C-alpha cells in the first residue's frame, strides 16, 4: 500500500478517535495545574524578582493560594493540583513532571514582572580644565571647558499585566513533550480499542500535531480572556503575548498552558497592590473568571453544529493534506538525523 494512502487511512481512524476524545461534556476540564513561580531556595534566598521590600516568590505563592480557593469553590468538580505546595522552590522539570503526571487539562503559571531601573544622564555644567602644550618658550596654557554630567537611576514606571503563551516557533518542542507524555493524550479506553500506543507511529505523530495546534489556540484564547478580565477591573493590560525566549515549562507541559505576569514589583504602586490582600484576591478573581469564560468557550466549541458543505470539506481536506505533508517531512528529517 502506498505510504501516503496509509497515512490518510490512519488519519481517518484518528479523526474518529479525536471525535470520541472530545465528545463527553464533563471531560472538558478535569484537572487544572496551578504553578506558583519561583520559591525560597534552600539557603533562604529568593529566586524571583525583587521589589523595594518584597519578593516575587512570596507574591506568586499568596496569589496562587487565593486562586486555588476560588477555583475549588466555583468548580468543585475540577481537580486542582499545585506544583509548589509550600513556599519552597520546586525545580522547573519537576513542575512539568507534576503537570504531565497528573494529566492536567490546563496549566496556569503565576508570576510577577520586573523592569530594570531607568538610567539618566544629566548635564550639570562645564568645568574648566587646564593643560599645557609645547615645550620651553613655546609652552602654552590651554583652558578647556569640559561638560560635566550626573548619572543616576530611577525606578522603572512600567506597570500592568501580561499573559504569555509559548512562541509559535516552539510548537515542535511542545509536540515532542506531547509524544513523551503519550499516554495522557489517549482516551482511557485507547488501549482496548487500538492496542499499545506507539509515540513514534504515524498515527500518534498526527495526533500530537493536531493536539499541538489545538493547544496553541486554546492557550491563546485563555490568555486573551485573562487579560480581558484584568482590563475589566481597571488594571493596565499589556495584552496576550508569545514568549520568544525562556519559559521552558510552557512547552514542556502536554496541555494548554499560560503564564500570567500579574504586575510589576518594580513599580511602587503595583508592589503595594501585589502585596495587599485585596490586590491578591482581585488578581485571583480575574484569573478564575477567565477560567470560567474558557470553560464556557470550550463547551460552546464542542456543541457547535458541524456545518457540512463542499467548502468546509475542501478546507478540511486541505488541512489534512498539510498535516500529512508535515508528517512526511518529519519522517525524512528523523531518518536524516538518526543516521
Ligand atoms: Zn517570574
SSE blueprint and pairings:
Blueprint: H1 3-21, E1 31-36, H2 56-74, E2 79-82, H3 92-101, E3 106-113, E4 118-133, E5 140-154, E6 161-166, H4 171-180, H5 182-185, H6 190-194, H7 202-232, E7 237-243, H8 248-252, E8 257-264, H9 268-275, H10 277-303, H11 310-338
Parallel strand pairs: 1-2, 1-3, 3-8, 6-7
Antiparallel strand pairs: 4-5, 6-8
Helix pairs in contact: 1-7, 2-10, 4-7, 7-10, 9-10
Bound molecules: zinc ion.
Describe what this molecule looks like in 3D.
This protein has 339 residues and is an alpha/beta fold. The protein has helices at residues 3-21, 56-74, 92-101, 171-180, 182-185, 190-194, 202-232, 248-252, 268-275, 277-303, 310-338; strands at 31-36, 79-82, 106-113, 118-133, 140-154, 161-166, 237-243, 257-264. The protein folds into 2 domains: 26-114 and 158-304, Zn-dependent exopeptidases (Aminopeptidase, 3-Layer(aba) Sandwich); 118-154, no CATH class. The strands form 2 sheets. Strands 2-1-3-8-6-7 form a 6-stranded mixed beta sheet, with helices on both faces. Strands 4-5 form a two-stranded antiparallel sheet. Strand 1 (31-36), helix 2 and strand 2 form a beta-alpha-beta unit. The two termini are 26 Å apart.
Beta-strand percentage?
15-25%
The CATH topology annotation of the largest domain reads as Aminopeptidase
Ligands: zinc ion
The second-level CATH architecture of the largest domain is: 3-Layer(aba) Sandwich
Nearest-angstrom radius of gyration? 27 Å
Q: Low-confidence runs (pLDDT<50, min 5 residues)?
A: 16-26, 334-339
Quantity of strands, as a count: 8
- Mean pLDDT across the residues is 83
Quickly count the domains. 2
Helix content: 40-55%
SSE-based structural type: alpha/beta
Number of helices: 11
* CATH class designation of the largest domain: Alpha Beta
CATH superfamily of the largest domain: Zn-dependent exopeptidases
Distance between the termini: 26 Å
Note the run of SSEs as H and E. HEHEHEEEEHHHHEHEHHH
